[in-house]
Amino acid sequence: MSPRQGDGSRVLMKGMVILMIIIGNGRLITRGSPNELIENGAVAVQERLIKEVGDTSELRAKYPDAEFIDACGGVIMPGLINAHNHIYSAFARGISIKGYAPKNFPEILDGMWWTIDRNLLIEDTKWSAMATYLDCIRSGCTTVLDHHASYGGIRGSLFAIAEAAKELGVRTGLCYEVSDRDGEEKTREAVAENADFIKFAKADDTDMVKGMMGMHASFTLCDSTIALCRENTPEGIGFHIHVAEGMEDVNDSLLKYGKPVINRLYDLGILGRHTITGHCIHVNDIEMEIIRQTETMVVHNPESNMGNAVGIPPCMEMIKRGILLGLGTDGYTNDMFESEKVANIIHKHVLSDPGAAWSEVPQMLFENNSKICARLFNTKVGVLEPGAAADIVVSDYVPLTPMNADNCDGHILFGMSGRSIITTMINGVVKMKDRKLQGIDADMILSKCREHAGAMWQRINSR
């Protein structure tokens, strides 16, 4: 069979006929500029990219040979993006650590998270990643920017996560959390793991995996370690670092270095348009201005901040100043709808302003997360438009009130959750259809996770 170049519904590639896929018969939200809602919309996908967006009947008539996936009147939208996650936290679900009763943030870090990562082996890392990416597929999250730590097994840990991402087909950006907390040898191992993975990701031409230089927080990093990180980070590659998440970070920087955290990082050459700063809760006006002028990115993680009782960042002020502020979960959940809901109410509560966050939080999730990814990936994500990545999800949500481009954010906020996602496509490949995973053995994955998590819990509590 010869390819029909005219309509493009079939293409010949390496001797194989590749069928176009159309996802349609739903309310389609483009998230373009301007955002549009097509009442009976459809998106045509060819290979890994979006070819066309439009009316369902028109696209089906134009591409009659295309495979059709019926949204059944639900909502078709771009796949969601998690701009700051911790895959290694997956095995914390249900854990009980002997003697763990934290009274403050440092006790949470050392008693829970550093205890887990010190006992996380390479195979544990692989299966915690499989669990996380599986959860993401099911909840409509198609791109994950992760910040990893596994001091029980450093070398090869990012590659193990990348292997899981490739196996399940999730777009991901990875880094390893460099810290001085476990000694110089492990610090150097962590830097080397980042450097090796950055080289690997740069050589990968799929645009499905990217590398950054990860760092924990300035209070666990001396100047010479930060300098080592910088020396091992190629031009055009950014840093991913926790900033002023707790007052311990702020006080450490002031007492040891005589300057706020952001000022210190600026002086050490860490900030810039490719750098992600997680949290930024306790930052002052001058620090926010430095963030803005350096075009540094910030990611808000509302549920984690509340759970750790560390405070809430001045997100409304950051957005007002023009800082690129995205939304993440910090490992608390993989459901970005859940993170959006909490972000919406917590800023109203903190500011005693019922008008706060209505537009800012959707901007963080749908617009700014896409812009953050544009600084990492070559293919545009987070929008449904020709040439963008075919990362598409379908929710079974059917509105009970009128829905249009102007009020769709309200419908998403109050009507959707990760559990409403029925179909997920990533990079042009259907990973879940009508809530049935495609080519993924979830039972096997979860069984392996229980095995590895149980062994890790036993190691922790047998100390």
Could you explain how this protein is built, in words?
- The protein has helices spanning 56-62, 105-118, 122-139, 157-168, 184-203, 223-231, 247-257, 261-267, 285-294, 302-307, 315-321, 336-351, 360-374, 408-415, 442-461, and strands at residues 10-13, 16-19, 21-29, 37-46, 49-55, 67-70, 75-78, 80-85, 141-146, 171-174, 209-211, 213-217, 239-243, 276-279, 297-300, 325-327, 392-395, 421-426, 429-433, 436-437.
- It has 463 residues and is an alpha/beta fold.
- It has 15 helices and 20 strands.
- Helix content is 39%, strand content 21%.
- A hairpin with a 7-residue loop joins β3 (21-29) and β4.
- The longest helix is centred in the middle third of the chain and has 20 residues, at 184-203.
